[in-house]
Inverse folding.
DNA sequence: AAGTGGTCTAGACCACCAT
DNA sequence: TGGTGGTCTAGACCACTTA
């Protein structure tokens, strides 16, 4: 069930990323070949090359300057990603941490089925509809980094699996995996809000830091392709060890 | 000197935004016309329509579903923007706040020329090269929201204006304006890092909140089109009244 | 099967930057 | 002036959803 018919754009992206990783453009001072040349080299149209470069630019890998050329963003290699990858990609923290070379572990604290209650609004269900709540801590090198509570409507699980909900959800290292493996649902997009809060006593215990330390709170709702809420998440990141990174561009023209 | 030759894509974007604001697609339940129909309606190619829709999707205004259609993201109208606009656009806070209907005011605290010191690394200048430091507070409805310190290399200012640096910089409501008006430099992109910190005593005073409250810290460096650092900024947002919003999409395919 | 968005092409012209 | 990225077109086919 691993349908693949990899679009040219993505192949081009992978080629370019590999070239950059290999330091292919170092001797040219970070200058990539022109779009026309890349098109020829990869035997694709210039539009396809441009599509690939646009996506690479959107994630900050590359910088384009009209009339000049395309350059690799050397800042990124000098300053290894904060949580940029997670930030832009929308997938589990565990995967994000892995892809930045850390070695995360998941500590499952709780997996229960209970009434939606306060999160019913976000999930667009009734307050007493059952949701699967999973609480976990993600550590790296033995130190806790992230505390995460996710709530998924029980109804997403096929009826025959609902009795095993706790077992199944508790066995997954991320909600993304759970949805993928057991609910046959994929996350289409996610809406998050980022705030700064203080660690309360409970959270301080869990994150192994003092109470009243600053931490980043990320509240998010994931939606399926048909815009149904898939899960609600409330995550806290240790303020001293985690930060997000973002690249922005002005679009307005004078 | 207001060159304009507005690209079709941007015109299409503006038309669509206006339509959405006007509630044009409400009766159709948020469904936009198909790309082909929009192309015909605006008398542009489908590629141009797709470009416009892609950019609207990237900022979360619209959601596209293959095989189904394009929809306005009704979540956004229900929950008015946090600081999403600033977050994605890279321009001054003041503009961002204005565009979300608030009425920000700028309180200039300090404008001085001094050695770069600690920020010399970020600005790629020598530690004793002079920079213009501007410290200000942005308030809305009388309450302070943001404390901001920006450092710009003095060398960006044309030599004849350097003696007036303090006066000029102190008179601008945002560093973007200052760069635009007096340095003939534009921001090409910005790299920011977001952390959670505590308000120290000084910051608490300035933001009119208690010390040891959580707040969001955004540290950023802006680069010109030729990748020269334009300014370094260290900003603090009151944790209780400001949050960022972000929309993410997974790109990996199973 | 019909209709939607997603990918891809080949070619054109423009705006910008260097020289 | 020549080369770069930015915009735009018209047309083709594919992948996906819905009925």
């Amino acid at each position: 069930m691993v349908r693949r018919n990899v679009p040219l754009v993505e192949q081009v992206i992978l080629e370019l990323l590999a070239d950059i990783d290999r330091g292919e453009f170092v001797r040219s001072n970070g200058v990539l070949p022109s779009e026309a040349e890349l098109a020829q080299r990869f035997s694709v149209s210039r539009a396809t090359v441009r599509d690939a470069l646009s996506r690479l630019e959107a994630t900050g890998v590359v910088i384009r300057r009209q009339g000049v050329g395309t350059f690799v963003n050397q800042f990124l290699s000098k300053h290894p990603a904060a949580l940029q990858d997670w930030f832009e990609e929308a997938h589990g923290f565990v995967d994000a941490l892995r892809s930045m070379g850390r070695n995360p572990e998941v500590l499952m604290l709780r997996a229960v089925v209970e009434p939606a209650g306060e999160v019913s609004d976000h999930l667009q269900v009734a307050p007493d509809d059952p949701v699967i709540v999973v609480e976990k801590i993600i550590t790296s090198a033995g130190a806790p980094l992230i505390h995460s509570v996710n709530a998924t409507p029980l109804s997403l699980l096929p009826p025959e699996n609902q009795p095993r909900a706790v077992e199944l959800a508790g066995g997954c290292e991320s909600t993304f995996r759970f949805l993928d493996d057991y609910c046959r649902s994929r996350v289409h997009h996610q809406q998050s809000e980022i705030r700064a809060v203080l660690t309360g006593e409970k959270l301080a215990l869990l994150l192994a830091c003092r109470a009243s330390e600053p931490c980043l709170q990320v509240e998010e709702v994931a939606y399926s392709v048909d815009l149904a809420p898939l899960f609600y998440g409330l995550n806290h990141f240790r303020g001293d060890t985690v930060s997000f990174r973002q690249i922005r561009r002005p679009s307005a023209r004078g």
